[in-house]
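Class, study these two lines:
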Amino acid sequence: MKRFRFTLQKLYDVKQSEEKRQRARLKELNQNLLNYSNQLKANRSIFDAQQSIYREKCKAGMEMREVRQFGDYLQYLEKEMRRQKNVIASCEKSIGECRSGLLKLINEQHVLERMREEQYIAYMKEVQKSDDRMIEDFMQARY
């Protein structure tokens, strides 16, 4: 009797390789999100430090040139933090899409695994019937 062969094995293999690719992409996106979050935290701490320096210098008195430089730098930092927040939001959206795609792939693989099990059970029944026929033929030939 021939060996068991799942008829959709190639599709199952493709889904597995796709899942690996999606998992790698998800890992990369999560790493990017972590990097962007760290950059935002660093900029936030720089902004806070510069603001406290600005306040101290304002109390002591400073020239208009310095006021303008601080103002420009703080505006730059605020703009950069807004940009980073937008990038983080975009990255989170991409992660959500990637996760939903990965979930879909995993569900498809589960369906294929159930189909494989059903085909294997049918194959085993066929093998059992064949073995039963062989035993029956052997027993009839003996008598």
Summary: Helices lie at 9-60, 64-142. The mean pLDDT is 92. The CA atoms of residues 4 and 45 lie 63 Å apart. The two ends are 26 Å apart (CA to CA).
